[in-house]
Design brief:
By secondary structure, the protein is α+β, with helices and mostly antiparallel strands. It has 14 helices and 14 strands. Strands 5-6-11-8-10-9 form a six-stranded mixed β-barrel. A two-stranded antiparallel sheet has the order 2-3. α3 packs across α7 and α8 runs parallel beside α12. The longest helix has 44 residues.
Length: 420
C-alpha cells in the first residue's frame, strides 16, 4: 500500500472520532505546555542568576548578623537573595575596624538598610533605603551609572537611584539633579544607575540613613561588605575574618557564632543547586501529565482498533499486509502526538510569557521575594526547547500506539470479518 493512502486512512480514523481524539490531544497539550513553561522559566532564572552574579564580582564577601538563619547576599549599594531575620547581636563599627587589620582585605564597607517613605511631586511610595560609606562605596560597588555620578566623600543629602525607581516608580520620571523627600528630608538626585543594575536602589550616605531608619544605632551596620585584594585567596580570607570576628566579639565556640560570611560564589552555587532541584521536581510533575496523555493515546488507539476491526478484515482480504495495518495505526497515533505537541508548544510559550509578565509585575511593585522573585522575571524560550518538546510529543504518540497497532496488524482476516 502506498504511503499516501496509509496517511489518508490514518487521518480518516482521526477525523471520524473527533471527540475522543480531541480529549486525548488536550491531555498531550497540557503535558507539553507544562514542560515547556517550567523548563523555560527555570532556564531563564538560571541565566538571570548568572548575569546578576557576574555583576557582583567574585572578590566580595558579605558579613551578616545571625548564623543559622542567614541565607541572603547583600551586595554593595544594593541587595540580592533571601533576607534573613535574626535576634543576634548586630554588627558594629568595631567589627569593621577588626576586619581592616586582616591581610588580603582591600576595602571594608558597612551599610545599613531599611524601609522609608519616598516622596516626589506629591506622590509617595515605600522603598528600601541603603546607607553606604561614601568614602569607599565608589571603589566597592559593581553597579554602573547611567547618568550623573556616584556618592562621594562630602555628600550629605545626596541620593543615587536605581533605574526603575527613577523611571517608573512614580508617574513622572525622576530627573537628575531633582529633589526627592525621604522620611521628610530633602535629598538631591546626583546619580541614576543603568538598567539591570540594582534597579530598585535608593542609596544615600550612611549617617543620614542611620538618622532616618528606626532601630539602627549610631555605630550599628546591617551588613559588612569586604573586597579582597587577591581573589585566589578569598577562602583563606574568609576563614581569617571568621576567626577575627569571633575573637573580637568574644565568641569561644563555633556553635555560638552569631554572624555569617557569604561569598557570591558560594551563594551562586547554593541557589543554582536549589534551582536544579526545583526544576527536576516540577519537571517530574509535568512528566506525569505526559504519561497520563500517553495512556490516553493507547486507550484511544485500542478503541479505534476495535471499531475498525471489520475494516481491517476487509483491507487484509483485498491484499493489505500486516505492515500496512501497522503503519496506519502508528501514523494515526503519531498524528495525535503531532497535534498535541503543536498545541502544547504554543500554549507553553504563551504561559511562560505570562508567568514572566506576572512575576515582573510583582517584583516591580515591590512584592515579596525581592531578588529571588526577580530571577523568575525572564524566560529562556529557546528554539531547541520548542523543537525538542514538539518531537518528544510525536515520539510519545508513536510509542503509545505501538501495542494497539501491533495487535491490529496481527488480526486474521477471517476473525476480523466475523467480529460483531
Amino acid at each position: 500500500m502506498r504511503l499516501r493512502k496509509i496517511v489518508q486512512l490514518a487521518w480518516n480514523i482521526l477525523a471520524h472520532s473527533k471527540l475522543r481524539s480531541w480529549l486525548t490531544i488536550i491531555g498531550i497539550i497540557i503535558g507539553i505546555a507544562a514542560v515547556v513553561s517550567i523548563v523555560s522559566v527555570s532556564q531563564g532564572a538560571k541565566q538571570n542568576l548568572e548575569s546578576r552574579f557576574s555583576d557582583l564580582g567574585a572578590d566580595l564577601l558579605t558579613i551578616s548578623p545571625g548564623f543559622s538563619r542567614a541565607s541572603g547576599f547583600r551586595g554593595p549599594g544594593g541587595n540580592f537573595g533571601v533576607a534573613s531575620g535574626t535576634d543576634q547581636d548586630p554588627l558594629t563599627e568595631k567589627d569593621i575596624l577588626a576586619i581592616r587589620t586582616i591581610p588580603n582585605v582591600k576595602i571594608v564597607m558597612g551599610q545599613v538598610s531599611g524601609s522609608a517613605k519616598m516622596k516626589y511631586l506629591g506622590e509617595t511610595g515605600d522603598v528600601t533605603v541603603t546607607g553606604v560609606d561614601t568614602v569607599v562605596w565608589k571603589d566597592m560597588t559593581t553597579d554602573e551609572l547611567g547618568s550623573g555620578r556616584y556618592l562621594t566623600q562630602g555628600d550629605a543629602y545626596s541620593v543615587v537611584l536605581g533605574h526603575r525607581r527613577a523611571t517608573t516608580f512614580f508617574d513622572k520620571e525622576v530627573q537628575l539633579n531633582r529633589q526627592i523627600a525621604l522620611e521628610g528630608k530633602i535629598f538631591k538626585v546626583v546619580g541614576i544607575l543603568k538598567e539591570g543594575y540594582n534597579d530598585n536602589a535608593v542609596i544615600i550616605p550612611l549617617n543620614p540613613a542611620r538618622d532616618m531608619l528606626d532601630d539602627i544605632e549610631d555605630d550599628e551596620v546591617s551588613s559588612i561588605t569586604v573586597k579582597v585584594a587577591d581573589v585566589d585567596k578569598v577562602n583563606e580570607t574568609e576563614a581569617a575574618i571568621e576567626k577575627k570576628l569571633m575573637l573580637s566579639r568574644g565568641i569561644l565556640k563555633a556553635d555560638d557564632k552569631d554572624f555569617s560570611i557569604l561569598s557570591s560564589a558560594n551563594l551562586r552555587s547554593t541557589i543554582s543547586e536549589t534551582l536544579n532541584t526545583m526544576s527536576i521536581f516540577l519537571g517530574a510533575i509535568a512528566a506525569i501529565s505526559l504519561v497520563v496523555g500517553a495512556v490516553g493515546i493507547s486507550n484511544t488507539m485500542f478503541t479505534s482498533v476495535l471499531e475498525k476491526t471489520k475494516e481491517i478484515g476487509v483491507m487484509k482480504a483485498i491484499g493489505a499486509k500486516n505492515r500496512d495495518i501497522l503503519m496506519i495505526f502508528l501514523i494515526n497515533s503519531g498524528m495525535i502526538g503531532f497535534v498535541g505537541g503543536l498545541g502544547g508548544v504554543i500554549l507553553g510559550s504563551v504561559a511562560s510569557g505570562y508567568i514572566s509578565l506576572l512575576v515582573s509585575g510583582v517584583s516591580n511593585g515591590g512584592g515579596p521575594g525581592g531578588g529571588f522573585t526577580r530571577m523568575f522575571s525572564s524566560t529562556a524560550l529557546s528554539p531547541e526547547l520548542l523543537i525538542f518538546a514538539f518531537a518528544f510529543s510525536i515520539v510519545i504518540g508513536v510509542i503509545a500506539g505501538v501495542i494497539p497497532a501491533y495487535r491490529a496488524s496481527k488480526l486474521r482476516p477471517v476473525d476480523a470479518l466475523r467480529y460483531e
